[in-house]
Amino acid sequence: MDRERAAMILVVNSGSSSVKYQLIDLDGPTRVLAGLIEHIGEPGSAFPGHEAALSRVAEEVAPHSGALTAVGHRVVHGGATFTGPVLITDEVVERIAEAAPLAPLHNPANLAGIEVMRRLHPGLPQVAVFDTAFHSTLTPAARTYAIDRKVAERFGVRRYGFHGTSTAYVSRVAAALVGRPETANVIVLHLGNGASATAVAGGRCVDTSMGMTPLEGLVMGTRSGDVDPGVIFHLIRGGMTPDEVERSLVEESGLLGLCGHNDMRAVLDGVAAGDEDAALAYNVYCHRLRKYIGAYYAVLGRVDVIAFTGGVGEHSAPVRRSVLSGLEPMGVRLDPLRNSSVRGTRLVSTDDSAVAVAVVPTDEELEIAIETADLLARTKS
C-alpha cells in the first residue's frame, strides 16, 4: 500500500432496512471495525430509522475518530453524470436523487446514509463511490440500445451496468495474478444472487451484461436475465399488470422460478437427487454463462484470465467446472484439484492453460476505501 495514500476510511453501505459498515486502515490494509445493522424501521426494531442506526455506527467509530480521514459511501446508480468517485456536496446529493428513478430500491437508501453521516461528521470529507462508474468507459456501440434515439434520450435509456465496484477490484487482482497488471484482458463473472459478466481490457470496461437495470443478462437467483421483450407485451395482453410482470421477472424468476430455489447449493442438491426442474435450472444457468464468455472473448479478441467472484463464483467448484466445460478449444483448461480447493484468491487453471482461470473473493468495501483515499489524494495535490 502506498504510504502517501494510507488513511483510515469509514465505508458505509446504507440499504433500505440495513447498514453495513467497515472502518479500514489502508496502511496494511487492516479492518479495524466491521458491522451490520439490520431490520431498520421494522416493528420492534431498536433502530426506528437510519439516524439511529448510523448514530450507533458513529459510537462504534468514536474511539478511532482522531485517525478517521473520510467516509466513503456506496451509491448504486450515478446515471450518466458520475463516471468516478466524487466529493459529496449539496449539488452531488441532488444529482444522486435525480438518478433515483433508475435505482428506486437503492439510491434513496444510499442517500439516507449520506445525509445522516454528513450531519454526524460535518468536518469529514464524504465521498460517493458508484457501482455504475466502472462501466462509464463503455463505447457508444456497447451502451446504446437500438430503440428510437429521442425516446432513449428522453427517458435515459442506455446500458449503465452494475457490480462495478466489485468488478474493478476483482479485475485488478486477477490481472496481477497473471503478471499483467496494466494490460490483461479479463472476463469477470460476478455470481451471487445477482449475477453479471464484464469484459475488461487493460483495466477498462468494454462490455457488461447488466443494462439499464440489474435485470438484464445472466440467469440470477430470482431475476430472469435476458428475455425477449415481446414476452412482456404477451404477458400484459394476457392479463398481467405491468407491476405484476415486473415483480415476476425481478422477484419470481431466475433459478427460483425454474426450480423453486434461489440458492445454488439447494439447486445442486436437487440435481444430485434427480430433480428434473433443478437440473434444467442448473443447465440454463450454465448455458447462459458459457454463451457470455464466448461473446466477450469475441469482444476482447484476447482473454488472459477468467475471474470468478461472488458467493457462487467463489464457492461452487461444480459451477466453475460446468461453465468452463467444452471451452478447451478456446485455451481454457481447468485443474480439477485446484478447482476443488477452498483457499481464497488463487488460480484454478492448469499451468499450460492459455487462458488462466482465477477465483477472487470480492472486497467492495476495500475498493471503496481505496477509491475514496485516491480521490482525496488527487484533490489535495
Describe this structure in words.
By secondary structure, the chain is α/β, with parallel strands linked by helices. 41% of the residues lie in helices and 18% in strands. The chain has helices at 50-61, 90-98, 107-120, 140-143, 149-155, 164-177, 229-237, 242-251, 254-259, 264-272, 276-300, 310-315, 317-324, 336-340, 364-380, and strands at residues 8-14, 19-25, 30-37, 68-75, 86-87, 126-130, 185-191, 195-201, 204-208, 305-309, 346-347, 356-359. The protein has a 6-stranded mixed sheet, with helices on both faces. The longest helix is centred in the last third of the chain and has 25 residues, at 276-300. The protein is globular. Residues 1-5 have low confidence and may be disordered.
Low-confidence stretches: 1-5
Taken as a percent bin, the fraction of beta residues is: 15-25%
Class by alpha and beta content: alpha/beta
Distance between the termini: 18 Å
